[in-house]
Amino acid sequence: MAVIDVSFRNLTLLLYLALLVTITYALCVVVYRLFFSPLSRIPGPWLTRISSILEANALKKQQRTRWVSSLFEQNPGAVAVRTGPKSVSFNSPDAIKAIYGHGKGAEEFVKSSWYDAFSTTGESLFSTRSKKRHAIKRRMVAHSFSAQALQSFEPYVDATLDKFMGKIDEFARVQEPFDIYFWFELFTMDLMGELALGDNFGVLEAGQPARYSALVEQSQRYGNLSGMLPFGRSNVKVLSWVPLPYIQRLWKARVKYLEYARAALEKRFQDDRGRVFPSEKARQDIMQRFIEAQDPETGRRMDFEELRAETSSLMVAGASTGSVTMNWMIYYLCRNPTVKARIIEELESMFPDNLDGTKPIPFTKLNKLNLLEHAEIECLRLHPPIGYAMPRDTPPQGAVICGIFIPGGVAVGVPAAIMGRNPAVYQNPNKWDPDRWSEGTAGLAMMKTSFLGFGFGSRQCIGRNVATHFIMKMIAALLLRYDFELENPGLLLGTKEFTIQKPDQIYRVVIKPRKI
C-alpha cells in the first residue's frame, strides 16, 4: 500500500508540474506577444496580439472586411494593422508586389494554412498551397480558359442568356419593380451548371434558387472560420467538434454540399456515356476540358476526387462573383445615366443590326468596347467579391514589407476592398468613375498594379476571361434591349459580407422595352 501511495503522489506531482509548465509557457507566449514580438509594434486592438477572436467575431457578424477597414481608419497613415496573433493586413501598392509578386526560393511567400480549409476532396487550383503543384495544375487546364475555349462556351452562354431575357421580358411588359440581383444569381447558377456540370439546374425556369446555393455559402463560411482558427487549420473536421449550433449548421452544410457536388459530377459522367453527339466529339465545356486535361510532361490526368474539388471551386467562383458584379454594374449605371448613354451609343455603333438586343452578341466584338469593360473594372475596384486579404505566409527568415519587419510564418495580405479605395492610388476613391481607367490617365500604371479584383500575380483568377465574357454579354444585351432605372433613385447601396461581398439590402429596378 505504501508503494502505491508513493506512486500516486509521484503521479500527482508530475501532473501538477506538467500543468505548471503549460501555464508558465502560455503566460510567456502571451507576454511575448503583448510586449516583445516584432508584431507588437503594429497597430491594432490589444486582443489581436493573443487571439483571433475579434476577426472570427467580425466574420460571424458578416463584417470582416469592414472591421479591418475600421482598423486602418483608427490608425491614419498606417500601412499595416494587426488582425490576429500571426496575421497582418497591409494597405500599400508596395505590399502587393512584395507579398503576391513572383518571389523565388527563400524569398517566396507561400499560401497560408488558411487555404487548407478549402481543400475539399482534394486540392483545387484555388486551394493548393504548393507553388509547384499549382503550376502543374495551371499548365494542365490553361487551355480551358483560352480565347478558343471561350468561343466553344459561347453557345451555352447565349442559350442561358436567352432564357434570362425571356424572364426579364415579362417584367418589362408589366413594368413593375423587381429584384434584378436575384435573377442574376439564377442566371449564373444555370450558366455554371452548364459549363461545369454539363447541364443547367433549371432555376431560371423555376424562378427560384437551387438547393445547392445556400449550401455553398454556408460551406464557404465554415472554411473561412476553420482556416482562421489554429485548431481548424490542421484538420478541417476539428472545428466540427465544437458543439455550437452555428458551427454545427455550417458543418452539415459543407458535408451536404460536397455530396451534392459528387452526385452532380457522377451524373455528368453517366450522361456523357449515354449521349451521342452528332460531331462524335464530347460536349465542349469547362468540365470536359478538365476531364481531358493532362500534364504535358507526365501525361497525368485528374482523378474523380480532384475533378470534384475543381467542380466545387468552379461553382463558387463563377456563380457568386459573376452575379454580384453584374448587380453593381446595373446599380452604378442607373446612378450614372451619362455613362450609360455613352455605352449604349458605342453598342449601337458596333451592332447597328441588333438595336433591340434580341440577337446574340459576339464577344469577339464586344471585348473591344473599352468603356463597358472599364465599368466592370471600376465595380470590381469598389466592390471586389472577396474583400478581405488573401493570406500568404512570410518566409522562415522573415521579410521586410513597407519598411516593417515581419517574422517568418506570419500570414500577411492586402485586402482588395481596402486597397481599391486607397486615396494614394485612386483619386476620389469612393467615386465610381470608369474613365479613370482610360489610356493616358495620370497614375494609370499604379492603379492597374494595385487592382486586386481578380487577384494578383501567378495565383490570380484563371477564370477571369470567362467571367468577363458573360458579364459583358449580359450588360450589353440589357442596355440594348431595355430602359431601366432604380425604383428608389436616391438609393445608397452598401455591402454585407457573407463569403462574397453582397448588397446590404434588397433593391428593385423598373424595366421597360427601350425606345429605338
Automatic annotation (TrEMBL):
<keyword id="KW-0472">Membrane</keyword>
<keyword id="KW-1133">Transmembrane helix</keyword>
<dbReference type="GO" id="GO:0020037">
    <property type="term" value="F:heme binding"/>
</dbReference>
<dbReference type="InterPro" id="IPR036396">
    <property type="entry name" value="Cyt_P450_sf"/>
</dbReference>
<keyword id="KW-0408">Iron</keyword>
<dbReference type="GO" id="GO:0004497">
    <property type="term" value="F:monooxygenase activity"/>
</dbReference>
<keyword id="KW-0479">Metal-binding</keyword>
<dbReference type="InterPro" id="IPR001128">
    <property type="entry name" value="Cyt_P450"/>
</dbReference>
<keyword id="KW-0560">Oxidoreductase</keyword>
<feature type="binding site" description="axial binding residue">
    <location>
        <position position="461"/>
    </location>
    <ligand>
        <name>heme</name>
    </ligand>
</feature>
<comment type="similarity">
    <text>Belongs to the cytochrome P450 family.</text>
</comment>
<dbReference type="GO" id="GO:0016705">
    <property type="term" value="F:oxidoreductase activity, acting on paired donors, with incorporation or reduction of molecular oxygen"/>
</dbReference>
<protein>
    <submittedName>
        <fullName>Cytochrome P450 monooxygenase</fullName>
    </submittedName>
</protein>
<dbReference type="InterPro" id="IPR017972">
    <property type="entry name" value="Cyt_P450_CS"/>
</dbReference>
<keyword id="KW-0503">Monooxygenase</keyword>
<feature type="transmembrane region" description="Helical">
    <location>
        <begin position="12"/>
        <end position="35"/>
    </location>
</feature>
<dbReference type="Pfam" id="PF00067">
    <property type="entry name" value="p450"/>
</dbReference>
<dbReference type="InterPro" id="IPR050121">
    <property type="entry name" value="Cytochrome_P450_monoxygenase"/>
</dbReference>
<dbReference type="GO" id="GO:0005506">
    <property type="term" value="F:iron ion binding"/>
</dbReference>
<dbReference type="InterPro" id="IPR002401">
    <property type="entry name" value="Cyt_P450_E_grp-I"/>
</dbReference>
<keyword id="KW-0812">Transmembrane</keyword>
<keyword id="KW-0349">Heme</keyword>
